[in-house]
Amino acid sequence: MGVRGLTTFMAKNEELMEKYKLHDTFVIIDGNSLSCQLFTKYANSECFAFGGDYDRFAQHVKDFFLMFSKCNVKSVVVFDGGCEEKKLETILKRAKEKTVQLENILPASSLPSAVFPYLMRRVFREVLLEIGVPMVQCDFEADQEIAALGIKYNCPILSYDSDFFISGAKYIPIPTIEHEARTSASNQFFIYCEIFRVENLLKRYRGLEMSMLPLLSALAGNDYVETHQFEKFYSQLGIGQRFPAHMRVDSVLHWLRRVGDFDSARRKILRTIGANDQSFVSKKIEETIESCNCKNLTVESYLPSISIGHSSKPDLCNLGTNQEQGNVQTISQVESAIKFPDWLLNSCRKGLINSTVIEIFTLKTCISNPQVEDFSLTPCHEVSIPLIMALIRIIHGEGKVTVDYWGRLNKTSYAKYRLQSSNIAYPNLENSLELSIENKTSMFLKLLNVPADFCVDIFPDEWKLYLCTIIYWMKKTTVPLITDAHVMSLVLCMIALNIIDGKLGFVREVSQFLKSYRNKLPSISPLTSHRDLKDLLLQIDENDCILCFDSFLKFQHLNQNLISNPALFSRSIIHAFAQLQSCLHYSMTINSIMNFPFKQCVVHKLFSGTFIYNVYSAIISHENAKEVPKKLLCKSPKLFKVYRTLVSAICRPTPTTASSTATHHKRSKTEER
């Protein structure tokens, strides 16, 4: 939520913070905040303009938690759930601001404030699952539960939200954490950071009670209350509307320590409000107080037996490996005749279901996060509308339900679409578990417009949903026309991230590569007989990947010509792959609420915006597009066969492409065999 001016106030009063060595402890982490802060920290080394280098971001997340493990810091990551109605206006306002910020993004542009790649938060969760860091998701905003868990188990919380300065929990602002483990004289690994204890604030303002701090949140301004509501109150304190926010915080704190008890303070505040507005402001103060007090720890039962010893530290050592069902409750704050199924609520609270589902269920609202695209073209999210309508049908059943869908409309306008549920019969939430995997798979393939003769079973399980989503994207996207060049680029990226990185690890520099593989002199390994694609993939070894590494490396980095000559940057290229990201988000969401007929995609092993943009540009600029992948993979016949198999399977002739004039990269079955 955020208390206006409080972060600046703390920065100007450094004595309220303590230097801290983080080690041998448990921490409760604000997942949404950490994902954003990690991306922001490394934004200068990423290129935001290409839609998201998810492979690089995933590596930053892994490095962060590896550092924590080195210092014996065990984590529980807590995520926000769905948007609450009282915050909807704020969320939409921010989405509109982000849309405007993204219009003129270039490769050399700095990261706009609070704007992140479309699938970043999904990738963050993927990594947590991959490395075994436990996570839970609240039904709605997580701040209350994060603070309550920190207080209950006497462990620090990590976030970057000024609310936590007045929560009563031990609070470590994420930007204060050094990203390097140090060693003490006793060989103890630790991480330097700063910690805030509310006792320091209460000592500074003698007489101030902890119970008064929610009023600071209201009076200073937050997502629920605008400061102009208290104009008369401020004038009595000798501070006007233009008074700096951090100085307003100081003045309010001094007033709160003098005023007496909470009820007395509240009465005095309301007396400064006009009669017509008193009821409204009183309600907003109540909402602020409610947001600062956690009455129900909805996610605590999803943590395995937490035993509290004399040290008041929770036993979370095996958290995430033996998660129990917990006591399933009706999802909070929902006034609906539709019951949120127990199995789905469990999956939501385990962090396996995107919050989009909660918002469609509770608010009949779906919010499209802005992303980099070509603002002169049709909004990239429109290609996903059939998927969203199917999602509405699955969530709300057969009745005629209308959902407010928010997304870019024209240029930078961010507006509301009214979407009806699909008129196609899909399984609803209640009977989804009763259907066989075969039935759900068949329905899903039809939804994604996958041809009946597309043999999905020949592919590894973790590729199936991605490849089927690509087929949907190809068929539904008309501007720009999706061509073989797009598919070739995506397949080459899959080989780079999934196969080569899988064998060699995350290597993005020549020096790093030479350090590990300088003494290895692999020879070309001939293609041998194999039963199918899966068998071929098993035959690919480290040597194949070493031989092709150098040719792939140049596509992993920003082309400096795009910085020196921004006119070369093509937003229409970005637009096509932004459409794919939108399709992927909703196909993965549907997959989750159908209880995973497909294994979920691992996006950071499939999609890297910079790589895809670079290799696509190389393909379309070459006289013979097929020569580019051939040169990249010529040293490994096995990798080249994987490439040809994937492209041939996906690139089937359709009426759209049959008439395409883009002869050098038109979809066809003529890909080299």
Q: What does this molecule look like?
A:
The strands form three sheets. The chain has a five-stranded parallel sheet with strand order 4-3-2-5-6, with helices on both faces. The protein has 27 helices and eleven strands. A hairpin with a 5-residue loop joins strand 7 and strand 8 (189-196). Helices cover 45% and strands 8% of the residues. By secondary structure, the protein is α/β, with parallel strands linked by helices. The chain has helices at 6-11, 31-41, 54-70, 85-102, 120-131, 143-152, 198-204, 213-220, 231-237, 245-259, 262-271, 278-292, 342-349, 355-362, 385-396, 437-447, 461-476, 484-504, 510-517, 533-539, 542-553, 561-564, 571-593, 609-621, 627-633, 637-650, 655-658; strands spanning 17-22, 25-30, 73-79, 135-137, 157-159, 171-173, 182-183, 189-196, 365-367, 402-408, 414-420. Helix 18 crosses helix 21 (542-553), helix 18 (484-504) runs antiparallel to helix 26 and helix 20 (533-539) packs antiparallel against helix 26.
